[in-house]
Amino acid sequence: MPADRSIAFRLILVITLSGTLIFSAVLGYNYYRSRLVLQNELEHNAENLAMSSVNRVETVLTSVTKVTEGVARSLESGRYSHEELLGLLRATVRENSEIFGACTAFEPLSAKARPYGPYYYKQNGQLIYDPEVSFQYLLQDWYQISRELGKTEWTEPYYGDNGANTLMATCSTPFYEISGGTRRLKGIVASDVSLDWLTGMVASIKVLKTGYAFLLSRNGTIVTHPSKEMIMNETIFSLAEARNDQGLRALGRKMIQGKSDFLPYTDINGRKSWLYYAPIPSVGWTLAVVFPEAELLAQVKKLSLTDAAMGLTGILLLAIAVVFIARSITTPLQALAGATAAIARGDFEVELPAVRSNDEVGTLTTAFQVMKSSLKEYISRLTETTAAKERIESELNIAHDIQMGLLPKTFPPFPDRHEFDLFALMEPAKEVGGDFYDFFLVDDTHLCFVIADVSGKGVPAALFMAMSMTLIKATARQGFPPDEILARVNNELSRDNDTCMFVTTFCGVLDTETGELVYANGGHNLPLHLKSGNRVSWLPKSGGLMVGAMEGISYRREQLLLEPGDRLFLYTDGVTEAMNEQEEIFSDQRLERSLSAVLGHGLRESVDGIMAHIRAFSGTAPQSDDITLMMIHYNGTKDSRR
Amino acid sequence: MDIQSCKEGMATVVSVTGRMDAITAPAFEKALNELIAAGEIRFVVELAGLDYISSAGLRSILAIAKALKVKGGLICFANVAGTVKEVFDISGFGSIFQMHGSVADSLATFG
Lengths: 642, 111
Description:
The complex is a heterodimer. Chain A has 14 helices and 22 strands.
């Protein structure tokens, strides 16, 4: 089932499908059971119908048999004159409506004897006497069979030769002369029976609309049948032959064997039917009743159709109900979805659909209302917070600007001084950091320069930096040597320094006339001395503690003589600890190589070049610390240059 | 950064491995402050496994040293090597703290 269909569609699909399935199963089972019940009922009815018909036929035929046998017994028990015999025959025919004609055919005593077989029959309500004058009758079935078997027999049906062309059958029975313990056949009493009443009766057996009954003779000849052309012309075996139907042949055999059964049957028109057959014992014929299945099941089918129509209507109503329910669920959901989309766009004033029910949808709507108000509150709080943060950030930016403003940025700083040149560069990290540099002339011939790095970041570092820078400048201006400057500033900073902040500081004072450099190192990265002979060397370690770390510390005063053309390079740990994407640091070694690479370039180009090297090394890795570079070039005075 | 501490005689030996920077230094400071609060005032900080120390790490050490100074305690360092040794030397830590080649040497100074 496609998941992108609407809930309503899926509900309808599932419910109607399963409803139809269940209903079809019930209907199918019901149809099957009804058929079975009907079939049982049918078998019962068929048996009743056939048996009652058989009984009716049997009654008539038995009475004919009895009358015929009665005449025979009369003839055996007494002597009848010709007239008396005719009287007996006349009475027999007249008094038994079923009997068409009666005959007493005498066995000729000798081959030359005159044939004697008086015969009375009915014609148009009149009794006609027919004295038999030939021995023709001796060859007739009715005579022969009874004579040979010595008992009452019925002939196969035949068409009477009386001109009426009616179907007849004859019951014949022998009669004897008994004298002295011996029996001698005297003749045969025969009663002709018109089978019109029988065909009429069988034809009158109506089963539903198109069901019918038919009669088979002892030989399987069709005696009565709704299809007139089959009467006496076909036997059940000839039909089986014509249809090449082994089943029918077997059925025919069973029928003439005097059995009875109820079984499915395809009639001569090819209709599916049920067949019940039962024997008529006295004549050995078989009565069969055909029940057309379609008609039998018509009621069941009609009922099933009605059921199906009702079921279909029910499912349709169910589908409508489902649509209604689905709508009642999805409509508020859609409204909710719309409102949510509006909220997602930031419209917190949007109206949520009213809660109309206490169900899950109602709960969801309530939850959405809570969410909306919470979101609204949260967003407004966030807006406030963001505004506050932005304010702080802008203040931090201002602090950063002030901090940067403290640093001298005019280069060359002393354009009228030719003994030295100085260039410095600071690349601040994103946050407010703590690097700074400074330089100023203490007097006409002494340049003081400082590079420092305050521990930590942010506003505390900025404040500490400003304080340090001011203290250093103020102290240096009083003409103290660098070690003394650091010691004094250290004492100032470390007093009441609960946060243990400190600043690594390198401070130097250069005698611009002699190139004599006096410096002190308060825990700062070692500067590099670039000799005019293209040699790069690190300044020696002095072991001075960071400024501000501990009160009462003294610093070592170091000295270095700068030759004209020498340079001094100072930097902060943002340089050597700059990281690349692989988290490798720039390191002292790379710095040294970088410096060697820019030797001989101009002062500004050299510093820019080193910065470019650091940037190329870092690549896209973020800068985590301030990067500060400072380079001092000593030219010497004209005297010393000379 | 990983911190292990154990009591060795008079002193507590604290082994620090990994990196001590702005992110991890507060954990070191907190761990030692807890030990100090528990009454320990003599520490041997063993740094053979420390790969890197930033100024924030130095500040933490300094804060601990100051706290100990108030209590009359002492902190010394053992097996400081490599870049950490460089940083200790340049920052002047080497001149204000006792540094030894082994934990045993450090412990010996406490008697």
